[in-house]
Design goal:
The complex is a heterodimer of chains A (113) and B (110).
Chain A (H helix, E strand, L loop, with lengths): L4 E3 L2 E4 L5 E6 L6 E7 L5 E8 L2 E5 L6 E5 L5 E5 L8 E8 L8 E2 L3 E5 L1
Parallel strand pairs in A: 2-11
Antiparallel strand pairs in A: 1-3, 3-8, 4-5, 4-9, 5-6, 7-8, 9-10, 9-11
Chain B lengths: L4 E3 L2 E5 L4 E6 L5 E9 L6 E6 L5 E4 L2 E5 L3 E6 L8 E9 L5 E3 L3 E6 L1
Parallel strand pairs in B: 2-11
Antiparallel strand pairs in B: 1-3, 3-8, 4-5, 4-9, 6-7, 7-8, 9-10, 9-11
The chains are: A mainly beta (113), B mainly beta (110).
């Protein structure tokens, strides 16, 4: 069974640009979660999507947004990039929104110059 | 405030030297306590889920236990390949997201 996949693996942008990160969940999983892991910090929750709807968001500004597609894959968009957005962005999926175990992808390393 | 605290921040062991990692969690409303392993630059790898006090789970050299206030990850006779950062996380109420601790960086020397 294929795990969670993310693309691209690395992304380099300049300040003010927009970044789009993509995630495909494990087959049969309907919930997708996005986390940010900045250097030296723990995993910080960004967004949770289930059945195409945003269910919860963490303490991040509105320029962090995303969506979930009918096939349950998801996209994270970061607008007006700032230097401090440089981090490892992790996507996780779970079977449903009943607090099932979350399985993580390999992450996308975003570097903002 | 929901909070997960892990200790120690870093742990250096000799190969074969058993030890334990600690995770203190928010007691009220816990729906699950999770342990993950993370290698540098990679996504966390799921290890265990614990749901109620007294529960224990084992996998190879690792055993996770849960009390009413804490969880422990016991590592028996570790090998160098067990070197990684071990993350503890809690699921609270119906929020959906996991709340992570900052992790314990384990280094096992041959």
């Amino acid at each position: 069974e294929a795990g969670v996949t993310q693309s691209p693996t690395h992304l380099i942008k300049t300040r003010g640009q927009q970044a789009t990160l993509r995630c495909s969940p494990i087959s049969g999983h309907t919930s997708v979660y996005w986390y940010q892991q900045a250097l030296g910090l723990g995993l910080q929750f960004l967004l949770w999507y289930d059945e195409g709807e945003e269910r919860n968001r963490g303490n991040f500004p509105p320029r962090f947004s995303g969506r979930q597609f009918p096939n349950y894959s998801s996209e994270l968009n970061v607008n007006a990039l700032e230097l401090e957005d440089s981090a490892l962005y992790l996507c996780a999926s779970s079977k449903d929104r009943a607090q099932e175990t979350q399985y993580f992808g390999p992450g996308t390393r975003l570097l903002v110059l | 405030e929901d909070q997960v605290t892990q200790s120690p921040e870093a742990l250096r062991l000799q190969e074969g030297e058993s030890s334990s990692l600690n995770c203190s969690y928010t007691v009220s409303g816990l729906r699950g306590l999770f342990w993950y392993r993370q290698d540098p630059g990679k996504g966390p790898e799921f290890l265990f889920t614990l749901y109620s006090a007294g529960e224990e789970k084992e996998k190879e050299r690792l055993k996770a236990t849960l009390t009413k206030k804490e969880s422990f990850l016991h590592i028996t006779a570790p090998k160098p390949e067990d070197s990684a950062t071990y993350l503890c996380a809690e699921a609270i109420g119906s929020q959906g997201n996991l709340i992570f601790g900052k992790g314990t960086k384990l280094s096992v020397k041959p």
